[in-house]
Amino acid sequence: MMTAFFWMLALFMLLLTLSVRPMGAWLAPLASGTLPGRWRAFDAALLRRLGLNDAGMGWRDYTLALLVFNVLGAVLLYALQRLQGDLPLNPAALGAVEAGSAFNTAVSFVSNTNWQGYAGETTMSYLTQMAGLAVQNFLSAATGIAVAFALIRGFARRESGDIGNFWADVLRIALYLLLPLSVVLALLLVSQGVLQNLSGYLGYTALAGHGQTLAMGPVASQEAIKMLGTNGGGFFNANSSHPFENPTELSNLLQMLAIFLIPAGLCHAFGRVVGDRRQGWAIYIAMSVLFVVAASAIAWFEAQGNPLLSALGADGGSGNLEGKDMRFGIAGSSLFAAVTTAASCGAVNAMHDSFTALGGLVPMLLMQLGEVVFGGVGSGLYGMLVFAVLAVFVAGLMVGRTPEYLGKKIEPFDMKMVALTILVTPLLVLAGTAVAVVVAPGLAGLANPGAHGFSEVLYAFSSAANNNGSAFAGLSANTPFYNAMLGIAMWFGRFAVIVPVLALAGSLAAKKRLTPTLGSMPTHDGLFIGLLIGSVLLVGALTYLPALALGPVVEHLAIWATH
Amino acid sequence: MAMTTYHPASALSLPRAAVLRPALTLLLFLILVLGLLYPLAVTGLAQLLLPAQANGSLLRDNHGRVIGSALIGQAFHSRGEFWSRPSATAGSAYNGGASGGSNLGPSNPALTKVVAERIAALRAAHPEQRGPVPLDLVTASASGLDPHISLAAALYQAPRVARELKRPLPQVEALIAAQREQGWFGNAQQARVNVLQLNLALRRLAAG
């Protein structure tokens, strides 16, 4: 079982690494704002037609534009859900989405979390899915990438007051990057059996004689951007475990690759734009090391199976199959779980709630590390670059030198922004969990008793505040309490991080770029990669080990103590 | 591009109207392109190039009536048929309109209870099998619509099906072998069969 897993992991990492260079070459001109010649005329004409331009903005203007654009998007998405009953493309005649759920879902999709308190096939009309949810899949992804671009420009530019133009960034990312990739991936997915139609749900008589229904819909077009934009909100309740979303082992591989494609390529684009490709590869290697270890750990724990079921007379040699589909098995389900939580995607092809105690701990920890192991599109890179600044700061303290990264002096204002960025999400996760486990409406949602119930709540807040969106889905989260609490966690987990990152970008852009001297610490070698991994793990472990000990670790000990 | 000096304390340079208008224009334009043109264009292309897959990989009987999808599992209860995995879909098992898993945690007593019941039922129905029960036959899938069971789970049920249909066991086992789907990288544990397809083959055998 582990042999098959390692072959799949090796194939996955090989294909991903091969994609890094071409994706970087595609992304770099978008990041630096120097489009290739033949695109420039089209781009200028389109911007002019829309009444826009690409004049540089300071970080405050950029931030304001980003916030207004996202708030407007959330308001429109909320309105669409509330009005869907009176709008076309609604063959299942679904009524208005309940207000609390519509609020939660609007925040969820705008913040690139795609937490789903609802079941798609029984809640959302085709119009809401296409023009509402799928549009925000594109736009929240474009927003994340735009922020990463702004931060990259902060490092690349010298004594500049501008970090780019938000409108031009979003438009270009959506139309020149996400759209073409989505069309290709959608058609590849259809070839494997993913649905793409506008028919009503299909009633038929099953072979055994009883009546049955098949949900239908424009699934592939939404599935493609759900993966490429690390969104993760499924068309159907069962998400990527539904055979109409993810029918084969090949579609499973394509979906996993699509999740990492842009986050991995952005590392290379970063290296290109700052003028030293080794810097990008160093980030990519640090992410890959963390990912490979985490993925292997999940597969190993899932392969151990559940001794409580073996004791009853079930075949223990097959690993843990509760909540897994047979076409993915232990290998395909474990790798997918690692990919979707390392990136802040949150699509699932297996039910994480039913993973073994420690097999479920690893996805939770991957989110808690701040979604920097590839992470969300854009957010993974800007999160990791913030940790890189922290790493050079720590190293600077050790040797008593002013820290600098890529020739930019790291000063008190920058470190304040770094600290804010790193501390916002743990605050939301731990405070939210603490509140939820002491008040009645929080406890009412638990599906599993004991330590596992605590894990469900911890997972929910880790997922929401880090904008992942996957769940220990037994938790009944479609209640006023969880819709509000998780909505708040998602919103601030997204935008209370983006604002200090943009402030950091503005501050960096204004600085001189010093030429490296003998005394500068190289930030592309093994030592730095180790330091970066160490910073990520240290912050994550110090923050979350006590909480993890109360949930999955206790559950693991309880299960295995009797065996 | 303008090279202005950076002032951390400097105020916003844009008046508020200069933000709302481009935000609305861009949002509406992108809703049109990404929310309508994109899915409709992909639907058109898919219906043109890959209509069978795009419409659900449907299986039909001799009269052209839909009897299911090659990708979606169905519930079977007859002793003369192969049984699918347990399904946790809302309403009824294998409800294609409400997918989902059980979400029972590994230490949940409800999980051990339901698995113990399923093992007892399977053992009663397969008195000739003495070894452990294939795990996939007693655990619910993620989608609740899993079309497959493991090869081991099919072979486990073969003696019962053969006995019920009064067919020699090797004949039934040959059907299973013909339906076998291999897991990637020769993963024996992921060798599996599509239960609906297997039962259709069984019907053809019984009819012929």
Explain what the structure shows.
The complex is a heterodimer of chains A (563) and B (208). Chain A is an all-alpha fold and 563 residues long. Chain A is 65% helix and 2% strand. Chain A contains 19 helices and four strands. In chain A, a hairpin with a 2-residue loop joins strand 3 (404-405) and strand 4 (408-409). Helix content of chain B is 45%, strand content 6%. Chain B has helices spanning 17-49, 51-54, 109-125, 151-165, 169-179, 195-207, and strands at 58-60, 66-69, 148-150, 192-194. In chain B, the strands form two sheets. Chain B has a two-stranded antiparallel ribbon. Chain B has a two-stranded antiparallel sheet with strand order 3-4. In chain B, helix 4 (151-165) runs antiparallel to helix 5. Chain B starts with 16 loop residues before the first helix and ends with a helix. The model of chain B is unreliable at 1-10 (pLDDT under 50). At the A-B interface, helix 1, helix 3, helix 6, helix 7 and strand 1 of A face helix 1, strand 2, helix 3, strand 3 and helix 6 of B. Chain A: The system is composed of three essential subunits: KdpA, KdpB and KdpC. Chain A: InterPro entries: KdpA. Chain A: Keywords: Cell membrane, Ion transport, Membrane, Potassium, Potassium transport, Transmembrane, Transmembrane helix, Transport.
Shape of chain A: globular
How many beta-strand segments of chain B?
Answer: 4
Indicate the percent of residues in helices of chain A: 55-70%
Roughly what percent helix of chain B?
A: 40-55%
Order of helices and strands of chain A: HHHHHHHEEHHHHHHHEEHHHHH
Kindly report the average pLDDT value of chain B: 91
Number of helices of chain B: 6
Given the C-alpha coordinates, what overall shape of chain B results?
Answer: elongated
Give the oligomeric state: heterodimer
